[in-house]
Amino acid sequence: MPEQPILLDTQFDPEDEYRPEPEPEPVPPAWLDGSLRIGIHTSISGSYLNALESARKLGVNALQIFSASPRMWAGGPARIPEADATAFRTRREDLGLGPLVVHANYLINLAATQPMLRTRSIQAFHDEIVRSIALGADYLVVHPGARGEARIEFAIANIIESVKQAAKRVPLGNLRILIENTAGMGSVVGSRLEEVGAIVSGLAGVGAGVCLDTAHLFAAGYDISTAAGLEATISKIEDTIGLENVFVFHVNDSKIPLGGRVDRHAHIGEGKIKSDAFTRILRHPRLGSDPATGLPGRVFLLETPIEDPGDDRRNVAKLWELSGVEGPAAEKGYSMLTAALKKKIVAKRKEQRKVAIAAARKGAAKAIGKTKKG
Fold it and tell me: What b-and-e string marks burial along 96-120, b requiring 16 or more CB atoms within 10 Å of the CB?
């Protein structure tokens, strides 16, 4: 048998080239499907996972949380352990909850003129950004802050620069920072939609958006309680901010009358805005999440008071009822506030009042003593 010649295959065949499989296109989250998204602020007390379970039991499909204590500078760890963050993200995906909104610390003042307060606020907001990314949050809501004696133009520039500094060298990924409007008490910035629009415009490079609070709008003088007033307010939002930049609505009734400039939330339908107004807001085609007329993923979040067991559950049920949409099933009888917890809270408040009264009396006695000596 003749010996077969050895062939040297030196000719390049394109078919032999290695072609790696292309990365699969990311699948949009379920909450961008155009369905109505209604959520509530839930507690992270005990565990971040508890907030997710509360949302599930209350019958919502979205939620807002704090990433740490909202009224303390050192309200918790600057970073979340990766195991905790992973468990939270996994459980949230299992439950199909979204969007997830994180509300920043109340002490943060991005408009501060005092160097120490401004530095502290920027650092605290930076930590909020890092924790929000770890949790897989979609939005991070922050109040603009108070300007003191500073001119409004200076305050707005300060807020813009503060946010930029806080977000510097942090890959935001899917996280979007949202500026919340305010009721207008004292020297706070953001009660006028023009101010909110100017801040967001200055943060275009960061991709910032807006969270509008219904109680704040009303207290600031925007009459969303009537059909005509709502349309006028929507027109104003469009002119100053752009509806496409409003990703979150905080849905709260107001204990304060129109233009009262004080932030006091009330149960849905029991304040000055009334149920009919919330029906119009929830069903308005331009304010919803319908892809054809609104913004997919836009969410209505409750921040109503929980003064008695069941208040949270009743406000959630009320929103779904006013929307005309059947929401997820709620766990019968569940509330984030139990009778035992309420008892503890009442006792703690009484003790705090006693301490405050004792301190005031002590201070008054010292003042009287100094007056007599003088």
Answer: ebbbbbbbbbebbbbbbeeeebbeb
